[in-house]
Amino acid sequence: xxxxxxxxxxxxxxxxxxxxxxxxxxxxxxxxxxxxxxxxxxxxxxxxxxxxxxxxxxxxxxxxxxxxxxxxxxxxxxxxxxxxxxxxxxxxxxxxxxxxxxxxxxxxxxxxxxxxxxxxxxxxxxxxxxxxxxxxxxxxxxxxxxxxxxxxxxxxxxxxxxxxxxxxxxxxxxxxxxxxxxxxxxxxxxxxxxxxxxxxxxxxxxxxxxxxxxxxxxxxxxxxxxxxxxxxxxxxxxxxxxxx
Length: 244
Prior knowledge:
Strand content: under 5%
Radius of gyration: 29 Å
Distance between the termini: 102 Å
Largest sheet: none
Helix content: over 70%
Order of helices and strands: HHHHHHH
Shape: elongated
């Protein structure tokens, strides 16, 4: 009940912002570019070790990512290029955060960790493969958004890892970024494998359906041909006049 009330309150705030931006004739593509610029800033903050600030910036950046599509729909400015721009810059937003973490853990400081550099690199590659698999699959099947670790989940995990980082704290819930990197590294490849399997299964179903339709058409064609041939072979019945 309490969580639902918070969700409704947050949605009202977002709706008000969307209406204000739409009535102000703000170009949705500008919001997309602002969002990716903030994400690049997040990457820089992670690289410098300012995790908490990076987490706050990440929240603001992804607020813009939520707003651009809604503003485009409300203002009637939905374009194919806008969708292409948004999805392309989303990939950049993902990668700069991973690169920032790789830089931080590769630096010669007390937090240096070759393992964390590897995990961040593996997570980066996995996130790219998840996005590519979805884009390529949807050129073959209607939809491929399966898997538990999509971009929104990755963003939430980054925010948790960033805001929980407090060097020197012994609290169990503090400094969870290494754990987040494990989840991202393993979960991304699991999601990639899930999308590969889903695409394979859907394509097999489509092929079986097509084969069945072809067989049905062939059976109907053969039956129609046989009926026509039988009609043509049937001798004409002549009238025989009996002698009167």
